[in-house]
Design a protein that fits this description.
alpha/beta; Rossmann fold; 7-stranded mixed sheet; 3-stranded mixed sheet; 10 strands; Three-Cys-motif partner protein; Tcm_partner
């Protein structure tokens, strides 16, 4: 089953690939390197814009050099079976890949127990959830897994725009079941004052989104003990915030690398958005012309659309999280 992804997913995965390669080089002095993919997904992904193949996170983890010596992938049973079948074709003979069937929140404990003999090894976890599927207890286990000077690094998708939708924040009664999921993800109910402040009009939707991201970063630093967190905003074609990618590390090299990648990604993200926006306008015009019986001379391909030159002189500014909303 092939899924169609927006251009922002392609950009997210390119940042991941760039960081994984830098991570592998930075840790090349060790015999072992661990990669955890808590929502590994499928390998058959295509672009919504041009139908070209988009290589997923597993592909990108497999291609880094020097390679990861332990690759642990997590998926629900049906997707896990398809993933195993695909891996036999793209990575024949690689015995260091393990696919865990089931909810990662349930299988993470046994997976980390299997890795106990190499828990000293540099470890990176990609947490590519959709909205609020990962539990705080899972993040806590990953953070505490490594025995050494630094913790396992994590890159976490935080569904900025998906959380209000899941909560049904504009309705008279919010979705209590989704609220429980948020509590599981945060490991506390500290998100509630933010949401209630938005419902009462004290916080704008934009301010509330900022506070929800800030709270997650604050807890990752204060509760799990990470030295730094970094958040990058992924936008859709219209320019609205979709989600944030939160990076956590307590290693100076990891923080330096991701700050550099986020700075580079700011301009590239806007270039990709503008290109997608231009393509959308062209397609609308073509549809309008076709409805009027007008035929274009040739079909416009995405590669023919030149991205604007974006000058982002400010770049990415690393700012620490501040005290959560309810503590101010």
């Amino acid at each position: 089953m092939t899924r169609l992804w927006g251009w922002w997913t392609e950009h997210k995965l390119q940042i991941l690939e760039d960081y994984l390669q830098a991570f592998a080089v930075a840790s090349s002095g060790t015999r072992e390197r661990i990669y955890l993919d808590l929502f590994a997904g499928l390998l058959e992904n295509r672009s919504r814009e041009n139908n070209e193949e988009i290589f997923g996170s597993v592909h990108r983890a497999l291609k880094v050099r020097p390679p990861f010596t332990h690759i642990q992938l997590f998926e629900l049973p049906a997707a896990a079976r398809r993933l195993e079948t695909a891996l036999r074709d793209i990575a024949p003979g690689r015995r260091n890949i393990r696919v865990h069937h089931g909810d990662c929140n349930r299988t993470i404990t046994s997976a980390l127990e299997e890795l106990a003999p190499v828990r000293w090894a540099p470890t990176f976890a990609f947490v590519d959830q959709y909205a609020a599927e990962v539990h705080w207890s899972t993040l806590e286990q990953v953070a505490k897994f490594r025995r050494g000077k630094t913790k396992a690094e994590m890159w976490i998708l935080f569904g900025t725009s998906f959380l209000p939708r899941g909560l049904e924040i504009g309705q008279e009664h919010m979705n209590a079941e989704f609220g429980d999921r948020l509590t599981d993800m945060y490991g506390s109910e500290e998100w509630q004052p933010i949401v209630h402040a938005q419902r009462r009009g004290i916080l704008s939707p934009m301010e509330a989104r900022f506070e929800l991201v800030n709270l997650m970063r604050w807890r990752l630093e204060r509760e799990l003990g990470y030295k730094e967190t970094h958040a990058f905003t992924m936008k859709n074609t219209g320019g609205a915030d979709l989600y944030h990618m939160i990076f956590v590390s307590d290693h100076h090299a990891g923080n330096k690398i991701m700050r550099h990648l986020y700075k580079k990604a700011l301009s590239r993200h806007e270039e990709m958005r503008q290109q997608a926006l231009t393509m959308r306008r062209i397609k609308r015009q073509e549809a309008s012309n076709e409805a009027k019986g007008l035929q274009g001379l040739f079909e416009v391909e995405p590669s023919m659309v030149r991205a604007p030159n974006i000058n982002n002189s400010a770049g990415y500014i690393a700012e620490p999280p501040r005290e959560p909303y309810q503590l101010r």
